[in-house]
């Protein structure tokens, strides 16, 4: 694969462009978690019920998960740079609408528009990075930076959400995006060449786009409402069955149209297919770690929101050290398979430690070791997983591959979190019925969910070790012939 014909691609401006792209992605990653700390304040201010409050999060997840694949394909067809700029601009305006919202409906609709813009930005940002960096060593380093932003941004969101909510108000968790968005747009116009990954084709598979987007959105809707409606309720089962039917219709459409939205031949690429399965399992485990450990620290140990954010800092620091340099060197030295398997194995150990956290736990013996292992595992594994998903595809389909792997992450995270939260709640209710004290029952529920999360991570590690085709440093530069 040759380097893109652009001034930025052939100079040190590439690294400045990478910082700008990662800053845009950081806005998206932060907004998936920053709102959680502020939910109690939002509920009081806008008079949400406990049920309706969930839609402040669910509206974002619904459109984010539903439009990732379509966003990636639109980037391939109409230009990654153009879609990135549109996505950041739309996300910034949606953030302004969130920050100015003074009723429930306005906030929920603005969050939905945020999720739509986030899907577009997330799907094309990775493709732009692949366009900018064609040399194996530089690409591995760039992917390490991107991996750090994705893996560590969620934890940073909890800390930033606690600071902004406690010192200013919940409105500022959204308004803080405005200056960042303006800076990202201005620098992108300067640093990202218009010639980056432009393609002459304008064919868009409308039927495929409608069917797969409707399928993903309906699946996410059913998943995020499963706890409330009941996983075996007629409504939930019907929604999931319709989503499966739409997905089957999408697969049939893709075999018959001239320019399919998602060429099924991509899944003949072994590493891409395995990377997506691992992405689903790992996202389920990581979402469980982040959200359930935050609940454990707040509801069982009595931490404040700011203390919860600070507790995640060790994991962030470990991710920084490994994602920004060491992980890239590990990939260049050992290929993809070994670092990915080892990283997921370390994450498994971290979740196993959390599954043993006691009701009277303390930070140093019961929280810090698991945080360090999970931060280390994420820092090592994220880079090789993204490379495994992206390296076998042609440049013209990098946006599509990015959309596929990000969709796998989103769907895996949503399904895994919903399932593990249901498991924790059911286990807690069972212990309460047996007469166990409330805190002990709650803690046992979290322990069970952490244990299942560890199983997910262990399955991912096993798949990486057994099924992933290893890549030597010489083959990390791009698509294979």
TrEMBL record:
One Pfam family, short name = MFS_1
**Protein name according to UniProt:** DHA2 family efflux MFS transporter permease subunit
| Entry keywords, A to Z | Cell membrane, Membrane, Transmembrane, Transmembrane helix, Transport
| GO cellular component terms, A-Z | plasma membrane
Xref: PROSITE patterns: MFS
- Any GO MF annotation of the entry: transmembrane transporter activity
Membrane topology classification: Multi-pass membrane protein
Name the major location. membrane
- Spans traversing the lipid bilayer: 15-39, 51-71, 83-102, 108-133, 145-164, 170-192, 204-224, 236-253, 274-296, 308-326, 338-355, 367-388, 400-426, 446-466
Annotated Major facilitator superfamily (MFS) profile domain ranges read 17-472
Compartment(s): Cell membrane
Q: Among its keywords, does the record have Transmembrane?
A: yes
